[in-house]
Amino acid sequence: MTLDWPGQRPTMLRTFTVLLFCIRLSLGMTSIVMQSQPELWIETNYPQAPWENITLWCKSPSRISSKFLLLKDKTQMTWIRPSSKTFQVSFPLGALTKYNAGLYRCCYWKETGWSEPSKVLELEAPGQLPKPIFWIQAETSPLPGCNVNILCHGWLQDLVFMLFKEGYAEPVDYQIPTGTVAIFSIANMTPESEGVYICRTHIQMLPTLWSEPSNPLKLIVAGLYPKPTLTAYPGPIMAPGESLSLRCQGPIYGMTFALIRLEDLDKSFYRKRPIKNEAYFFFRALKIHDAGHYLCFYYDGSYRGSLLSDILKIWVTDTFPKTWLLAQPSPVVQMGQNVSLWCQGPVDGVGLALYKKGEDKPLQLLDTASTDDDESFFLNNVTYSDAGIYSCLYLLSWKTSIRMTSHNTMELVVVDKPPKPSLSAWPSTVFKLGKAITLQCRVPHPVLEFSLEWEERATFQKFSVDGDFIISNAEGKGTGTYSCSYRIEAHPNIWSYRSEPLRLMGPAGFLTWNYVLNEAIRLSLFMQLVALLLVVLWIRWKCRRLRIREAWLLGTAQGVTMLFIVTVLFCCAISFAGLCNGVLTEETEIIMPTPKPELWAETNFPLAPWKNLTLWCRSPSGSTKEFVLLKDGTGWIATRPASEQVRAAFPLGALTQSHTGSYHCHSWEEMAVSEPSEALELVGTDMLPKPVISASPPIRGQKLQIRCKGWLAGMEFVLYKEGVQEPVQQLGAVGREAFFTIQRMEAKDQGNYSCRTHTEKRPFKWSEPSEPLELVIKEMYPKPFFKTWASPVVTPGARVTFNCSTPHQHMSFILYKDGSEIASSDSSWASPGASAAHFLIISVGAGDGGNYSCRYYDFAIWSEPSDPVELVVTEYYPQPTLLAQPGPVVLPGKNVTLRCQGAFPGMRFALLQEGNQVPLQFQSTSGNSADFLLHTVGAEDSGNYSCVYYETTMSNRGSHLSKPIMIWVTDTFPKPWLFAEPSSVVPVGKNVTLWCQGPVRGVGYILHKEREATSVQLWGSTSNDGAFPITNISGASIGRYSCCYHPDWTSPIKIQPSNTLELIVTGLLPKPSLLAQPGPIVAPGENMTFQCQGELPDSTFVLLKEGTQEPLEQQKPSGYRADFWMPAVRGEDSGIYSCVYYLDSAPFAASNHSDFLEIWVTDKPPKPSLSAWPSTMFKLGKDITLQCRGPLPGVEFVLEHDGEEAPQQFSEDGDFVINNVEGKGIGNYSCSYRLQAYPDIWSEPSDALELVGAAGPAAQECTVGNIVRSSLIVVVVVALGVVLAIEWKKWPRLRTRDSETDGRDQTIALEECNQEGEPGTNTSSPSSVSQETSVELPVPI
């Protein structure tokens, strides 16, 4: 770095290099060598005569590249495109001659273009070594006394490097490095270390062959004088084009002052040597790139410098950045408490003003000194009058043309208790069989704790940090009324008001008419069966006692039996028909187990972890309350801490023999315990825990990853194969797990594998080997087709269906989540054809995200795993932002980069396009943002894009979707639209906002006024709408306006202007009169004329309609009146009209509005609406109010009751009170109205409204199915009653016959009954004659 002005040629003597490097280190800046700069060096196979055969090598610093370029004397010499991307390439030159001597540099290709060139290599004539280059690198940051590294690059390897200092004959240091660069260290720079240094090289075998000396480097010491002060006049925040003066003042006269901008130390170095002890640095017309951080210092003639001044930040902008306001401890404050309002923004060194909505003057002011000390606005002993909406603005003490933008506001709520929260139930307030309900208590500000109360049980109370409460309905004990409250951290002893009560209902407390009727039908069927059995038993009993000569009794029994069978079959048919209303599809509901937690160990002794060990258990579920750690049957319980991460710690301390064993943990939720985590085995006090090895089934010819899961971070991993002594693969420290890759699985790769871990540094401490993993290649079916029916990025509560299909027949399917089986579907019984299975998640929860896949199988052969589907459950993390670079409007064939900025590092990002179910791109990054490149875009790439980020270790819990951004692929910006709000016709002194709207987001707008060379205002690109407010409008504001897009990036895309807007200011001339012909009420289809009468000639008349932003019509008549003709008017022409006029000599300076004229376009006014309050059903002693409402004002209502010829009541407000004395209030009602100005025109009657009561019909909830079932019950009961009545009537006669029958007849009757089932049996009884004449009708019962 020289002391010359920027842009002048640098001298060979590089003074102040150490000073500038210490400046970089004191500010936390990197070294002068850019990371993107490649390295250039020489290799040769003639060590003693390297010029005989020279090869130049170029190496990129951190990335592989597809092209490399070699430059000689600033002209292109050659470029190389290797066959595959690589880090370095060679450029053979051969023997050095005068033709290939010169200055060489190299570059490599990046995604955005060619990189920075390398350092310059100077090849001179043959017989000489290349001239080394010399620069410095600071190590630490104290001023004075920097530790300095001086680097010397010799271009060749195995050289001897010598460091010389001016005034010394012998070298002060020498080195023989293994590479091409030597590093000479000077510790704690002092004045004795000052001087001019050079570097030379020579070949080890030929100490007489020296290189040319490097360029000299002069080192000086800074910080010997007191630091100066740096101030800006008129202020540190200025607009582009304004002038600025920076003043650097020190305590010593006759010094040279220097000014530096830290963003560009090498180029922005300014110096002045005034007579006094201060210097002024002027910027006559500021530019955007002049913004930055400035500091100054001064030095004497020997280049001994002062300490650096404090950093001064200069802003060059046309719009102030936004401020935001925070309330501490909370925006909800209890009366009498104190609250601090912190105003924060990116601009430093300016004052701040606090405003309250509704007040013009600021409430409090903070000067620059107060803002630098991080002071805040303070409200003491707040009352209800302090509640309101607050904002803060920058307070400048100098004049500038910078425009204030909109600012964020903060609402302060003052209560005696915090306001009540909201309580909702998910998925509904009605319990379903086996399902729980989650009650969600929510407030819009941070909360310390939530509480849930159950009104039916006074002792019931639950607490939650996130506001979610899971309620089950075991044994019907979950139904009832719930409410919630909360407390904040500022006032932990004060609970808020309770929320509105919420009632949960279910089968134990939710009875409807259908439910009661269905239960009655089930009971009646059971009673019919019992009654039938009783009738059969009664008949058998009668048969044993009586002599039966007729078959009517058995026939009756048969009829009753058949009637019962038909009833049952008919009811079953009705039920089956109800089932057949849907489509019979094979869907398997996924019953998600409680997510498996993750177990790992942490230590603060990396080389000896057993000295202090802590086990951590983390759950992917946000509703986890407790964790359980089990070791060989012994358990510890830990409560979840109140933090964002759901995890708990189990400190073990120093590991002893009593700690050895197998550990796993569970997460404990409201009603369930999770599956155990993977087991962690502690095997000894000097051995690391045994790792776990796993892999997916190997497939011949495909890549296979073997996962080795350790338990400590920072360990290295080694993979072994049985029968091979040396390790198969080794991987460095990559977290707690490693993935070993077999690129192409073949038969030779089969066998038993195991893995071990060891510490990163020697001496290594090893773990026990893992359990062996056998890899065997089996014949497999091809992988199935696996997808979701909708997008895999879903919100909580959504329904997700996975479809797994294959062309093979009669297959069974297995669904996996993160490698574990969670569901299966057996389709082997299905009809011939392709096999498929649908796995259904009815309501997705936060723990249901993850990587899903499926496989199918038959008896012994499995398929390959399907391609995974990443299911992302959103709305867990904050919303990201999506930006388009260079902008959202792109020329066809160009590239555009979409940057998704998240809130947390180490996430995975997904890019989505509207209309595509599957995300377009995925990207995992270590930072908190991801760049998605859309390459060579076309018209099909136009559309709305959004992005989401999610964590891959915890069930793919994702963020809210970003706001969509519209990408336009076109060569012309779409035309925007300019309009005025509330209207383009504005009274003088009022405010109006001109809005420039367009479909392109993220682009600024610029407003133009006709006959003005410069644009009126420039509005920033922070939303889709451009607002240009004009306050206190006057005659200077009138005119014609237009707007267009104003992109903040360089773009060749054409820009179109918007429509032209004429801004008319009223109130400057006497008002006109407005009449309508033939009148204010016109039938549709007729013509109407508005007559606007002014008081001045040569005027232009304007017709206006209320609610319309633009004038309807303008006329320039020859006289004092304009006639606006409206042919064939329609209903939408109804409204309130007015007119204004302005002189042709003073356009747009208009008169006052005429009196408003209301127009109705109708042949009959529209019908009103009629409603009843509180309901349409009369209650004992209560009246009903009928409310008739119409669309027009100034009307009279009339109520009509069916059955009465004359109208019942009249009313101006439309309310009619109806009573039900003697049942005369029930019936159908309707109402109508008429205009008071036109009493002969009545509206259409309203729709009829029926009032019911004791004498009217009662609404019942009854379906057709229930009517059919009820009819069947009545038929069966009537039939049974008839049978019993007949039998009861016959009973006296049968009893008389019984008394006349002797014992012999009883015996015969008994035999007949006993022989009922044997009709061919003969008998010698005397009654056989009578049996022969009788008719036997065997009836099976």
TrEMBL record:
InterPro entries according to UniProt: Ig-like_dom, Ig-like_dom_sf, Ig-like_fold, Ig-like_Receptors_ImmuneReg, Ig_sub, Ig_sub2, Immunoglobulin_dom
Annotated region described as Disordered, given as residue ranges: 1296-1341
Location of the Ig-like domain: 38-106, 321-392, 419-484, 782-874, 878-966, 1070-1139
Positions with biased composition (Basic and acidic residues): 1296-1305
Positions with biased composition (Low complexity): 1323-1341
SMART domains listed in its UniProt record: IG (SM00409), IGc2 (SM00408)
Signal sequence annotation: 1-28
Keyword Heme: no
Keyword terms, alphabetized: Disulfide bond, Glycoprotein, Immunoglobulin domain, Membrane, Repeat, Signal, Transmembrane, Transmembrane helix
Organism per entry: Lynx canadensis (Canada lynx)
Superkingdom of this protein's organism: Eukaryota
Listed transmembrane segments: 520-539, 551-579
Any one of the GO BP annotations: cell surface receptor signaling pathway
Protein name: Immunoglobulin superfamily member 1
